[in-house]
Amino acid sequence: MELNKHLLAARLLVIIGSIIFFVLSFLLLLISMVASVEVTINGDSVSGTIWELVEYPAHFSFWISVIVVMLGFGITGLVIRKKAEKNPTTAQMVILIILGIPTIVALGAGVLFIIAGVQIYLAKKVKELEASYSDRVAE
């Protein structure tokens, strides 16, 4: 089974976007271990390393959830990439675009996910057109 150019582009963009998410989450974790970070929730500001933030559960949970969400976005992108190779669907496009919109500021990873979502949609349409063409030729 030969992959069309839209699917190849989507695979590459999702891999790059996922790597950006993984690296960014790792850097956030690493930096917060050695350097002081400032987390503000409802006007209550706390500054310290991740080990010092443990004393403030709301701030600690927020910081850890940001890191986990970035890891989750990267993993979700890789799973969608793998499934799109077999059968590109509109749902995969929608998920990538939804993941991409709030994360545009994450070093362009969101933009890559949005473009990959559009490429998956185009790959789906190309596959449908090829199927309808082969049905017409068979008749």
Automatic annotation (TrEMBL):
Transmembrane stretches in the record are: 12-35, 60-81, 93-122
Q: Transmembrane: is it a keyword of this entry?
A: yes
Keyword list, A-Z:
Membrane, Transmembrane, Transmembrane helix
* Lineage top rank: taxon: Bacteria
Q: What is this protein called?
A: DUF4064 domain-containing protein
